[in-house]
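Input/output pair, single chain:
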Amino acid sequence: MTISPTDHSPIAHPYRYNGTKIRALRSSISEERFATFKQLAGGDRRRALQLYVHNAALGAAFLWPIQGLEVTLRNAVHREMKSTFGEAWFDEPRLGSIQRSSIQSARRALADDKKPQSP
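Output:
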């Protein structure tokens, strides 16, 4: 038996689950998490696994667009902050404490990785 997201799923899914993989997948899902899918599948365990795999494929399908959005938003924020406060906007004293703390954490991570501390 193999399981793909659904027989009529429009989502391309590169993984096929044979019996061994299905058992491993099922054993890795908590009962609480699987209960949601079992309820949606009317108690049908095979259908519940199909829904679980379909849900994972949906999540994967959104990863690239969300990454692109994050980079675009980050660059837009940097551009606007730079135009308002100058090149070193991240040293702006009017930033809130949460923002300053986040910047300090980022600077520590960059220093730990021996990377330059510029946006």
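The chain has a mean pLDDT of 85. The helical segments are 19-28, 31-40, 45-85, 97-112.
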